[in-house]
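Complex 732.
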Amino acid sequence: MANKIPVVEYSLCAACGVCVTACPFSCLELSKVGIDRYNKVYPVLASPGTCTGCGICAKACPVEVITMQVLAGVP
Amino acid sequence: MKAYTGKVLFVNLTTGDIHAETIPDEVYENYLSGVGLGAYILYQRIPAGADPLGPDNMLGFVSGLLTGTPSLVTGRWMAVFKSPITGGWGDANCGGTFSPAIKQCGYDAIFINGVSPTPVYLFVDSNTAVLKDATSVWDMDADAAEKILQQDNLNKKKPVVALIGPAGVKRSLISGIVNDGGRLAARSGGGAVMGSKNLKAVVLAGVKPIGCHDPAAMKTLSKELSQKMRKFNLPGFVKGGIFPLMGKMMGGMKRALPMDGAMAGILMKRWGTISNNTLGITSGDTPIKNWKGSVVDFNHSYYKHLNPEKILKVEKQKYHCYGCAIGCGGITDIASASSGEFTESHKVEYETCTTFGSLSMNKDLDSILYINELLNRAGMDTIAAGSTVAFALECYENGVITPAMADGLDLSWGNAQSIIALVKKMIARDGIGDVLADGVKTAAAKLGVTGQPYVVTAGGVEPGMHDSRFDPLLAIHFSVDPTPGRHTIGSAQYYDMIHLWEKVSWAPPSGAYLKADEYIPSDKLAVKSVALSCYKELVDGSGGCLFAMMLGVNHWKLFEWLNAATGWQKTPDEYMEIGKRIQTLRQMFTIKHNVDPMSYKISPRMAGVPPLTAGPNKGKTVPIEAMMKLHWKHFGWEEQTGEPTTATKTQLGLDTL
Ligand code: SF4
Ligand code: SF4
Ligand code: SF4
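Predicted structure with iron/sulfur cluster bound:
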């Protein structure tokens, strides 16, 4: 497991799915609902175990709402 | 870094040869990517007279120039090919997730010719491109086959698939290519081309990064749009029940005004295209009863069943194509509508609600939801299939199709159960279904009724579900686009929303004008249609979506994104010149293949000949031939024939191709 993982600021996320496609390991998936009244589906880190912390998803996000955050307890 | 890869993959299914070619920068500067790159390759590589269903036809899968860059609503792909319906240029546009997947393999496009001796699929990732055996999935529906192909090729990256269903396998001329569980590149007959090549699918699993010139500038533009989209809302108490009244008001308006495209964003975000279900019926935008009826026939007792709110009730969640901040799609629960046969489906579109609703006089919404999924799985174009059903219903009314010919089905208007049965027969090419499986033009020829008023097409293609008698600018695009009958190119409503005149020096300002003026051929109307055609080709070269285009140039900033992505620093006028080049090349393709552009003229009924006697379009006639000629003239094409002039070809650098 990586020492950093992507964290999405959902209030600013466009639910566009760019990050999901960008991840080379398909770690992210669109499955989080219940955030807005339209029932849009937002990305979640579904496979944290395979995430390398590479930050490709964060770089790809067109609206820069993914930050790579340090996981507590992981060196 | 550039926004394009500069590489294209070529696959010959006859010889098995697979190789990449480098495309010079000038090609992108002159044609963009997407449909432009497609036209550039196909014009030169498909020989004149090639059989659309033979080895010489070339099927291209093209991504957009902006796809994969940090722009928004630019993630669409297109299939490009010689159309087996018209014999001229063919293309089909689709969302889903396939467009970025092409670029992640390191290519802007994949072009496939030849015919494989046995069923195959093409697998491509960052390092390899191979043909694999598709025998076991060949006859499967698109949904089932997509899941198996994803599973079989699962490594690190979840593969993305574009494939044909049984309709394409059976070479139905109205079949399309499916992606992401039921999004279709539906039009022009691309599914039949793919089927004729014995190619079931293209499976992509590349992970290459996609670059661009100035990501920071692109993201600034994206944030601006995303922020606006968050604010494009109506209060919750406004429900779909207001649409019939809105439609009535719009239909009765004597003057047209420039509109803010934000309205399109609001409607698409909340309801999607179904927001036009009842609005279009009362305004006059929606064709009724195979184009011979009106809201007097498909009245409130019918259209109330198509209220978009009823569809939102079964919408479980929204669906966005890749890179989209609008999200007009949805995933709906259709367990009840399909009597348990299916669980869920992509939300039905307005077009499907109309061909299988008002066009067929059908008020049974459940039947439409069910048919939608049947056709998505079969990979059949719902516009063409529903239009063909409506044609068959009128043939039944006329006695052209007798009860015996209908295999015992009661094909009276609006008989939902018979319509479902007929669709199943069309998919299976069974009995009367085989007569209808290739669309209206072929069915009319088989029934010996070609040229009759109830054979409603543009150049043999079933038109999109917007009434050309309601919007003459749309009638022009139906008739002059190299893909006739296409409702996604231009209309007066689009023009008034896009505000091109604020960025393009020669696009006429809209201003308040009399609706009645639209029915009189004029230079101004022709220049508007030229501007829309050029702009749409830019959108299609970039991977943009029609619904983003409708937001207008001040919300969805295509020109600015293109400059930030490429560093070209071109003016909007220079970009429009690229659009003109692409459109002219598409037209040159059609002419090279010996198709007469005048043959794309809409059927008399669509032009109001004779005029309707009731409803908002009562008494309206569109002098379409004169309008086509004026459009051609202002495009720099021969006014009488629609053939691009030598001067225009030279000016656009197309004379040397
Ligand atoms: S950090 Fe890298 S591996 Fe992890 S989710 Fe983002 S792109 Fe995937
Ligand atoms: S790329 Fe950014 S805006 Fe798009 S879904 Fe991912 S986090 Fe949200
Ligand atoms: S607006 Fe709709 S069709 Fe267009 S890209 Fe977005 S989800 Fe797809």
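Residues 7-204 of chain B form a domain with the Aldehyde Ferredoxin Oxidoreductase;  A, domain 1 fold (CATH 3.60.9.10).
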